[in-house]
Amino acid sequence: MMSQIMIILIIALLLITFLLFVMKLIFQQEQKSKSPYDILEERFINGGITEVEFIKRKKS
User: Fold this and answer.
1) What is the rounded average pLDDT of the residues 3-12?
2) Backbone dihedral region for residue 47 (phi beyond 0: left; psi -120 to 50: alpha; all else: beta)
3) Torsion of CA 25, 26, 27, 31, to 10 degrees
4) DSSP 5-52
5) Which of 20, 1, 58 is closest to 49 using CA atoms?
6) What angle do CA 27, 23, 40 make, to 5 degrees?
7) What is the CA radius of gyration of the chain?
8) Is the pLDDT of residue 6 over 90?
9) pLDDT single digits (tens) 11-51
């Protein structure tokens, strides 16, 4: 009986650890991603879009 409880506890701890690891990876990827405004500004700086188009897109 006691060994069954220990096995269940170990499995529960492994599942919780796995879920926390996955959540940590997801949040790291989210922090690395660029916002749409950053991408828009980067295109404007590199000359990909005109100033008029930049202002128009930024307002919408």
Assistant:
1) 95
2) left
3) 100
4) HHHHHHHHHHHHHHHHHHHHHHHHHHHHSPPHHHHHHHHHHTTSS-HH
5) 58
6) 25
7) 24
8) yes
9) 999 999 999 999 999 888 877 777 778 888 888 898 888 88
